[in-house]
Amino acid sequence: MQVAQERCCGLDVHKKSVVACVITPEGQEIRTFETMTRDLLELGDWLGARGVTHVAMESTGVFWKPVYNLLEGRFALLVVNAQHIKAIPGRKTDVKDAAWIADLLRHGLLRGSHIAERPERELQELVRYRTRLVQERAQVVQRIQKVLEGANIKLSAVAADVVGVSGRAMLEALVAGEEDPQALAALARGRLQAKRDALAEALRGGVGPAQRVLLGSQLRHLDFLEAEIEQLGAEVSRRLRPFEDALERLDTIPGMGRRAAERVVAEIGTDMRRFPSAARLASWAGLCPGNHESAGKRHSGRTRPGNVWLKAALVEAAWGAVRARETYLAALYRRLAARRGAKRAIVAVAHAILVIIYHVLRDGTTHRELGGNYFDERDRQATVRRAVKRIERLGYRVTVEVA
Q1: Confidence bin at 369 (pLDDT 50/70/90)
Q2: How many angstroms separate the CA atoms of 180 and 204, rounded?
Q3: What are the tens digits of pLDDT across the range 13-34?
Q4: How far apart are alpha carbons 94 and 15 in whole angstroms?
Q5: Please, which residues bridge with residue 80 across strands?
Q6: Could you give phi then psi for residue 251, rounded to 5 degrees?
Q7: Cβ neighbours around 111 below 10 Å, total
Q8: pLDDT of residue 65
Q9: How far apart are CA 105 and CA 126, in angstroms?
Q10: d(Cα 288, Cα 279) in Å, to the nearest integer?
Q11: Is 297 helix (H, G, I), strand (E, B) or coil?
Q12: Which of 6, 177, 260, 374 has the fewest CB atoms nearer than 10 Å to its CB?
């Protein structure tokens, strides 16, 4: 078999150790290093002394990251999907794993995953952690509602946001010991003022000492999370300032707000040249049907895992997009949901949004709305025939005239 890399190394990475197998024209050499910074720097010097040019490792959890950080820039690094090589038989030890990776790399049989540059990786960490905090904030709000229900307080039945301006004032009054429903309802602001009578009934309950302690703790936790989210948001905005034009263009897509656009840019960047087509991007994100066909029969078409962070952001955007009435995405959802169900339809809408994002970023354009009547206008005669047949099945005679 033809040799593609004369001097290469395969790494089998673990939490506390790294097994390195170097293959050169002089032969094969194997050595084990610990994963502390000093040991990893020693690994880099050892590889450099042997003239290694290419290094490959499996993407095992997060343990590959320290190795990648310290070897980046010194060697051509490949982080390989473990699924591509895990099914190879005959490997029983870590030494054999490292040797097998090195042998595959030597013959050019490994395909590395895309690893973003350090600034992009840092941006991803910030955006992903902010997303986790937003999710945790939602969980705290749910816990507040649970405590209120346990105290016979039905605030969520009247107020859409129990931690809004009005809801927050009422919750703080409950924690302070206020029990009069009328006094609590008087704290309503804005449009909730018109619902004071309903609020007074909803706030008639029995908040005991334990519920006050829980609500006080949850409100303080909520304040902490909101402050952290705001601080992270400021740092994310600072790092995304060079991409402001791309964010504004993504914001023209239905369902895509500023925060969703930031999540998308953090995951895929703005340079679409690394994706040959929109279909390849959708496959990488895990937003296309699975391909499993054997003996002429199609089996499960479940989507692959892909980039779970990007997929979650696009599915959230899809749910927002389908609420708009006269848009192409809403028409696509209604068209598919009737036949395939809501969940499959929403994944299809998320796929469509990703395709739009690809072209917006690649071509430097803004979203062009096709309209909610796009599918009907695509074949007007077929649309008319279907409508006429449907009405005639109800026992009516239909005459169609052009207006």
Answers
A1: very high
A2: 8
A3: 999 999 999 999 999 999 999 9
A4: 13
A5: 58, 112
A6: -70, -15
A7: 10
A8: 93
A9: 33
A10: 8
A11: strand
A12: 177
CA 155/CA 162 separation, integer angstroms: 7
CB of 4 closer than 8 Å to CB of 106? yes
CA angle 200, 203, 204 (to 5 degrees): 90
Q: What is the dihedral of CA 313, 315, 316, 321, to 10 degrees?
A: 120
Alpha-helical regions (H) of 159-257: 165-176, 181-185, 196-202, 209-239, 244-250
Q: What pLDDT score does 57 carry?
A: 93
Q: Which two tokens stand for residue 195?
A: 């619902």
Locate 56 and state its tokens: 């490959």
> Nearest to residue 13, comparing CAs of 32, 39, 41, 38?
32
Burial annotation 209-248 (CB, 10 A radius, 16+ → b, else e): eebbebbeebbebbeebeeebeebbeebeebbeebeebbe
- By CB atoms closer than 10 A (0-12, 13-18, 19+), residue 333 is buried
* DSSP result, 4-45: S-SSEEEEEE-SSEEEEEEEETTEEEEEEEESSHHHHHHHHH
Reported as a single tens digit per residue, the pLDDT across 272-326 is: 998 999 999 999 999 987 666 666 676 666 777 889 999 999 999 999 999 988 8
What pTM, to 2 d.p., does this model score? 0.86
Q: Which residue has the tokens 């998308």?
A: 264
pLDDT digits (tens, 9 = 90+) for 69-127: 999 999 999 999 887 776 555 555 666 888 889 988 998 888 888 888 899 999 999 99
pLDDT above 90: percentage of residues in the chain: 76
């708009």: which residue's tokens? Answer: 324
First to last CA, the chain: 72
Q: Which of 68-72, 148-152, 173-177, 300-304 has the lowest mean pLDDT?
A: 300-304
Burial class (CB within 10 angstroms; exposed 0-12, middle 13-18, buried 19+) of 329: buried
The four Cα atoms 147, 152, 158, 161 give a dihedral, to 10 degrees, of -10
Q: Decide: helix, strand or coil at residue 225.
A: helix
List, in sequence order, the alpha helices (H) in 240-341. Answer: 244-250, 258-268, 278-285, 308-321, 328-340
Q: How far apart are CA 116 and CA 56, in angstroms?
A: 16
Hey, what amino acid is at 69?
N
